[in-house]
Amino acid sequence: MSVTSKASSDGKSVEIAIRGRFDFSVQQQFRDAYRDQEKPGLKFIVNLAEVEYMDSAALGMLMVLKKYADKMSGGVVLKRPPQAIKRILLTAKFDKIFTIEE
To answer: Residue 31 CA to chain centroid, in angstroms?
Structure first.
């Protein structure tokens, strides 16, 4: 399990990549990945391509990130979720709150 983040070269977005389990055990790493990013209009791209497991704590962390981005007039995109993870997101109706990209 690991969380990494990387700002784009133009400074308009930050990609947060999660590998393995996305649950409460990565809560601090996840928060650290975006906490110091305070640029107005910033887009956070959460790359879920390598997530093997996601629970309700992860859904809560995504909601906290959304609230953080909204305060700065930014946005959150959930990128490349595997089928099992996408089913969880759709069941939780996250497609109504977030942009989900294949």
So the answer is: 10
